[in-house]
Amino acid sequence: MSEACCDHDSPRPEADEHGDDHGVRTLWDVKELRFAAAAGLALLAGYALGWADAPDRAALALKALALVIAAWTFVPSTLRRLARGRIGVGTLMTIAAVGAVALGEIGEAATLAFLYAIAEGLEEYAVARTRRGLRALLALVPDRATVVRGGNETVIDPAELRVGDTMIVKPAERLATDGIVREGRTALDLSAITGESVPVETGPGEAVHAGSINGTGALTVEVTAGAEDNSLARIVAIVEAEQSRKGAAQRLADRIARPLVPAVIAAAALVAALGSLLGDPSVWIERALVVLVAVSPCALAIAVPVTVVAAVGAASRFGALVKGGAALEALGRVRTVALDKTGTLTANRPAVVEVQTRLGRTREDVLAVAAALEARSEHPLARAVLAEVEAPAAATAVEAVTGAGITGRLDGAEVRLGRPGWIDPGPLAEAVARMQGEGATVVLVEDDGRLIGAIGVRDELRPEAREVIEGLHRDGYRVAMLTGDSVATARALARQAGIRDDAVHAELRPEDKSRLVGELGRGGPVAMVGDGVNDAPALATAHVGIAMGSMGTDVAIETADVALMGEDLRHLPQSLRHARRARWIMLQNIGLSLALIAVLLPLALFGVLGLAAVVLVHELAEVVVIANGVRAGRFHGALAARPGTSSTAVAALQPVESPEPMR
Domain-by-domain residue ranges, the chain? Predict the structure, then answer.
């Protein structure tokens, strides 16, 4: 609108560089709209006096007053930017107003300034409103927190919480900051911050996050983050910092708008000069001023930023952290979705489902040897094995063989655990193939050079996985699965999820995943969905990296373009549809803005429309563009309720119209 819309580095009049909106809650809170209201009353009174045959001087004075009041909203800032060598739409409006005054058209100049002030105010209100949607996350933190200090429970302001404090969270209270549960069990309602529709069971040792609502059990929580750097505060800070990143659509608007401003000034000067030589100078100077306003790229410049701010804020409210315009626009262009298996399609809670034995060894013997080797491992499979053994012994001289398994010594004998192929399955080959065909990952166990058993571990698919894959296919996306598991295991799980065999890529190392994502990207923009840590190379290679289940995970939030805060995979298609719809709105706004310029230019040049008419059409179109952009701030759709889902949690997400069809 003003230079603020063409110069995005400059803070808006009602907002500082930190994104604060200084209490903008209603239209009347916006300074430009208050000034516009005063100017409108003065302008209306001036015209009323003219219609009533009152003295011309009084009518002229009221119109001049209206001009001064309305112009005060943009002329001072325009002059300051001109002093720094910056020009923008406000420059065009200032020149047009000055020119109209020079021609004696005070009423026309006042009308221009009045309408421009209204459009400026509506833009500010739209941006402040969408910004509030994001910052409302911080309002989820309660006003008070209960801590134990000196053996007594004390109620304090959350800002006074320090790392290491012991916080008491009573039933139905919100958590004031992040922490680790030390005592108590409960179910936490995370719907407001991650979009999870089902309360999450939580107990000792579990991480909990600011803004969660406690269920029926009291918790004792050790504080791990202060109020200024808890998970909610980090999310808001990251999104606000990343909002300056521009997507391709926004850069397109900038590339058109920035050179257009000086070009419009030059074209208007040329029209005035040539017209004055060939005809009445006053007529052609006035037409030049009308051209100046008609071709102002204001709507074009604001078309994308308002959409981005609205869409990013809305995404954060259903648990998707979209890091600015670049990520949003890229997410809207995605045509292929590559999914990691563990922790994305599966729940990342593997369990031992079968143990095959030989040579007279028992199930407990095989698990004991495996647990001795896995005793100090953090691998998910290790946790599954260790969960089956109450007090595992620890093997000595343990060494990991990359991509194969583990070796060590136990009770003086050499022991090994590893994948089939590295260890020969021998007589257990048929059982191994069967377990892999059922979707289990199989490890073989050797004791003193002899195969003693095979352990099948399976990480079950998320219950919503098949629904999500089918939905992605219906929406026109190509879906691929990338995993380090064996081909048989990967294909078995993929079939359960509804992924075709030819879209399954198994036995991959991190660098293989990165290479495959690059190959998939040749067929169109690709999104890689992983855990944000060991999938980092693939996330970086993809057009859009999406980290799954990243609430409170610094690495995932920092490295991915998009982070899905919750553990419900249905947020993935929801985020894709939301971004696609936002991108479609961006393109609508750019098209409307360019069409407006194309229509108004000849009408202004040939004198069909006067200055006031052009200003009115132009500013009304800008209001339409802003209103259309704000639509991107509506939730795209609700997650379907699972059995036991709180109706309140699901009702928070209401469906809206569908995005444009895939192309």
Answer: 3-136+238-316+579-650, 142-229, 320-347+461-578, 351-458
- Cα(215)–Cα(202) distance, rounded to whole angstroms? 10
Facing residues of 399 across strands?
407
Closest CA to 622 of 27, 251, 123: 123
Burial (CB count <10 Å: 0-12, 13-18, 19+), residue 427? exposed
* Full strand arrangement of the beta sheet holding 441-447: 351-357, 450-458, 441-447, 413-418, 405-410, 396-401
Contact predicate 309/243, CB 8 Å: yes
The set of residues, in sequence order, having a beta carbon less than 8 Å from that of 491 and lying 6+ positions away, is 501, 504, 506
154-159-160-162 Cα dihedral, nearest 10 degrees: 110
- On the question of a common fold for 320-347+461-578 and 351-458, the answer reads no
Count of H helices and E strands in the chain? 23, 21
Phi, psi of 561 (to 5 degrees): -75, -35
Domain 142-229 has CATH 2.40.110.10: no
**pLDDT(70) > 80:** yes
Q: What is the pLDDT of residues 42-63, one digit of tens each?
A: 999 988 887 777 667 888 899 9
Mean pLDDT of 177-199: 77
pTM reported for the whole predicted model:
0.68
Question: For residues 567 and 571, what is the distance between their CA atoms, to the nearest angstrom?
Answer: 8
Are 36 and 121 contacting, i.e. CB atoms less than 8 angstroms apart?
yes
Question: Rounded to an integer, what distance in angstroms lies between the CA atom of residue 384 and that of residue 386?
Answer: 6
Q: What is the pLDDT of residues 370-402, one digit of tens each?
A: 999 988 776 667 888 998 998 888 899 888 876
- Please write the tens of the pLDDT for every residue from 269-320: 888 898 888 888 888 888 888 887 777 776 776 777 778 878 887 887 787 8
- Class (C level, CATH) for 351-458: alpha beta
* 402 DSSP 8-state letter: T
Tell me, rounded to whole angstroms, the distance of Cα 382 from its chain centroid: 34
- Supply the DSSP symbol for 662: P
In the chain, the amino acid numbered 232 is L
Q: Closest Cα partner for 583 from 406, 325, 367?
A: 325
DSSP codes joined into one string, 333-381: H--EEEEEIIIIIB-S--EEEEEEE-TT--HHHHHHHHHHHHTT---HH
Token pair of 234 as six digits = 């980090």
Please give the C-alpha separations between residue 587 and each of 24, 300, 615, in angstroms, as whole numbers. 28, 11, 24
DSSP 3-state helix, strand, coil percentages of the chain (rounded to 5)? 50, 15, 30
| Cβ neighbours of 603 (radius 10 Å) | 16
Residue of 372, 405, 376, 412 whose CA lies nearest to 389 = 372
How far is the C-alpha of 72 from the C-alpha of 364, rounded, in Å? 83
Residue range 320-347+461-578, CATH number: 3.40.50.1000
Displacement of CA 196 from its chain's centroid (Å) = 16
Catalytic residues: 340
Contact 257, 301 (CB under 8 A): yes
**Taking a C-beta distance cutoff of 8 angstroms, is the pair 353, 457 a contact?**
yes
